[in-house]
Amino acid sequence: MARLEIRNLAKRYGDFYAVRDVSLSIEDGEFLVLLGPSGCGKTTTLRMVAGFIEPSAGEVRLGGQDVTLLPPWRRNAGMVFQSYALFPHLTVAQNVAFGLEMRKLARPDIERRVEEVLALVRLAGYGDRLPRQLSGGQQQRVALARALAIRPDVLLLDEPLSNLDAKLRQEVRVEIRELQKKLGLTTVMVTHDQEEALTMADRLVVMNEGSVRQVGNQRDLYERPADRFVAGFVGRSTFLDGTIEAPGRFTSDGGLRLACTDGAPGKATLALRPERVEIAAQPLSGLDNDLPGTVEFVSYLGAQIDIHVRLSPMDRLVVQIANREGGFAPEVGQQVHVGWPASAGLVFAQ
Predict the structure, then answer these.
(1) How far apart are CA 296 and CA 281, in angstroms?
(2) I need a surface site. Which of 56, 113, 234, 269 has the fewest CB within 10 A?
(3) Half-sphere exposure of 36 (CA within 13 A, CB side)
(4) Helix residue ranges per DSSP H, the chain
(5) What pLDDT is attached to residue 221?
């Protein structure tokens, strides 16, 4: 049986649906990430699971028990908020002990468990400090320790890394993932950061406008996106609008005639991942598509370089190349050729 089940969950405010008919099963020990842009319904979904928002329809089941109408403190779900929500006037140890005191555990048990979880998140010896005396990363770990102290059936993380700087965010997400694996803890995390999601998740749920667009692992979502939205949100894509004239033949609105591998005749969009496109000063041989173009913009990103190439007045695509010494490095205004195999193009009906 799934540790956490969400069945036809919905939240409506008047005529507006913040969440619409969401159903998910999260297995015991699984790390599931809800991914999507701001306003897509992912945080509302998480807060309905936690009990902070009452659903308009549907149910939440935890460990086989229907908890839809239970208050948060009776669900045994540990929650880490985006702002950490630490009590500024309480010490680290008192913050971590708060949930245990609400559950009326004996004082020796509380002290022992606080000591255990602070050691678990590498904050042993910090119990007497106040939150303001800690760094952002340490405060985040206190919030995590507080959630873990109650020994939750499910851990809920609401954008837990968004207040950290980029370097610290990379370090802490690895720490959280390693800790989750060590404890075998069923976890649901909300984020809008696709790199964060791809790094941490066992499975991902892409949401938009209150609905689930696709569920799968990293490879599923990146290589086999269900629609144009997923292709644009998970990873990067260039989109060329046009028409499938015949099986395997795509004509862009700008007049480019391209080879593709799928798609029924009719209006369609061809999506291309930047790293799947090759670029050279001369025509490219052995590829299904080879087109001349003009470099309009070059973006130097350290390990990689993005090259924006104009193919027609209506068509432009991005090529991503590795930054290698002695490699081909075109400049703005240079005439180039770009090419890709037919299998690199993803076709979505309009």
Answers:
(1) 15
(2) 56
(3) 23
(4) 42-50, 92-102, 107-120, 136-149, 166-183, 194-200, 218-223, 228-233
(5) 95
Structure tokens at 278: 């090759």
User: Residue 311 phi/psi, 5° resolution?
Assistant: -105, -30
Q: How far apart are CA 198 and CA 84, in angstroms?
A: 23
Separation between Cα atoms, residue 244 and residue 270, nearest integer Å: 9
pLDDT in tens, 159-175: 988 877 888 888 888 88
Domain count, the chain: 2
Q: Which helix (H) or strand (E) holds 122?
A: none
Q: How far apart are CA 117 and CA 96, in angstroms?
A: 8
The pTM of this model reads 0.89
Residue 61 φ/ψ, nearest 5 degrees: -125, 130
CATH number for the domain harbouring residue 189:
3.40.50.300
Task: Answer whether 44's CB lies under 8 Å from 53's CB.
Answer: yes
Longest C-alpha distance within the chain, in Å?
Answer: 76
Residues of the chain with pLDDT under 70: 1-2
Residues spanned by the domain of 148? 4-229
Could you tell me the two tokens for 231?
């292709």
Task: Say yes or no: 18 and 146 in one domain.
Answer: yes
Contact (CB, 8 A) for 259 and 249: yes
